[in-house]
Write a structure and sequence with these properties.
It is a single chain. The chain is mainly α and 65 residues long. Helices cover 74% and strands 0% of the residues. The longest helix is centred in the C-terminal third of the chain and has 24 residues, at 41-64. The chain has helices at residues 2-11, 15-28, 41-64. The relative contact order is 0.05. Residues 1-12 have a biased composition (Polar residues). Residues 1-20 are annotated as: Disordered. Keywords: Membrane, Transmembrane, Transmembrane helix. The chain crosses the membrane at residues 43-64.
């Protein structure tokens, strides 16, 4: 009977204790935030612009030939 009583006491651990420990862990162990990603849109637009410019140059050269 005493064994059953001991296991019941072990299972009735205060859940707020583990929550408080977790909150303290989060406060004390701050990870640095990752650097923001650089936008890709300007590079894509520059690439498309370069292709269009080359296409125009090729078209003008072929028209004058």
């Amino acid at each position: 009977m005493s064994e059953n009583n001991n296991t019941e006491q072990e299972q009735q651990v205060d859940p707020a204790g583990s929550t408080m420990m977790f909150q303290r862990f989060v406060k004390e162990n701050n990870e640095p935030e990752p650097a923001p990603k650089r936008p890709v849109t300007p590079y894509v637009l520059a690439g498309v612009g370069a292709i269009v410019a080359i296409g125009i140059i090729v078209a003008v050269v072929m028209m004058w030939s």
